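Protein modeling request. Please complete all fields; requests missing the sequence field cannot be processed.
Requester role: graduate student
Desired output: 3D structure, token encoding
Chains: 1
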Amino acid sequence: MSPAHRTEAADGAGPVESPPAGGARAPRVVSGLVVRAGGGGLSLRVPGRSVAVGVALCAVLITVMGVSLTTGDFELSVTEVVRALTDGGSPGADFIVNTLRLPRLVTGVCVGAALAVSGGILQSLTGNALGSPDVIGFTNGAAVGALTVIIVLHGSMTQIAVGALTGGLATAAVVTLLIAGRGLQGFRLVVIGIGVSAFLLAVNSYLITRATFQEALEAQAWLLGSLNNRGWTQANAIALAVVVLLPVAFALSRRLSMVEMGDLTATALGVPVGRTRTVLLVVCVALAAFATAVAGPIWFVALAAPQVARRLTRSSGPALAATALTGAVLLTASDLAVQRLFTDTLLPVGAATGTIGGLYLIWLLVTESRKSRA
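Delivered output (374 residues):
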């Protein structure tokens, strides 16, 4: 078969054969699904496994959402939940679903997706499985900005979000300056990020010591990362951030997969590497900052979700859509677990993700160490 009759899919998963210029033979797909538009002038290949994984993750997420809305101290049937969601239920069911449970659930879904995509972008840009906003310090930087607004300025939710975004971007700028001229790849970024994160953690502790007793209690509870008492103010804020930022990340996912191949290769393929890295880094920091502003620092979702999504889809690229769904499932399932298993106390979801994520981080460090020695 001549080169003119052979095209490669963007994700490198395999070739798609197209018929000769004068032939009538239908195209044969080696693997995956080919979607054609514009009379065949535009072809998009979607790997079948990625579609199956996406459908499965959506099913799991819907199941978790259903269990979250129907169970608890006051159990409701599916019919009662549906009626409450469509303004046809009783006042009690309406209050339980629309005031107590649904805002928390929406916040969890959006925060999980935001953290996961943030981690997926950063891991792809750095080429390092340890490249995560909470490991490198972006999350602690956002926490510094948010705590400054909470303790010093006594600001509103909007001001807290702006403070978190400012702190996250400032941290990203500092880390970028510290590794200037050496690129984002390798363990150098991780080591510098861990140092910056430790410094910012000390700043957070200092801010708490300067607060009043009540402010210190509230700030410390917020630093644990929690979805407790989250209402529509927080849910709407993070939902708006996700609606604006995730499409930008998805639109640049193909460029991101090319940047993973190396700057020279990406440039040869027509990707503006510098501008792409800058935009994606801003999106990464903004997603982590808004998620932190709404729920506090929730550890290890950004670290684990992208790796889980890659293993599920067996994709060599970033797989950002699957990553977002994986993050939403991980956080909502963890929050459901802490609500139902620890009914006597309002355990923050950050405790669950921190416990599971700590074990995952140990395993990841051991694995990466073995790879580097090999």
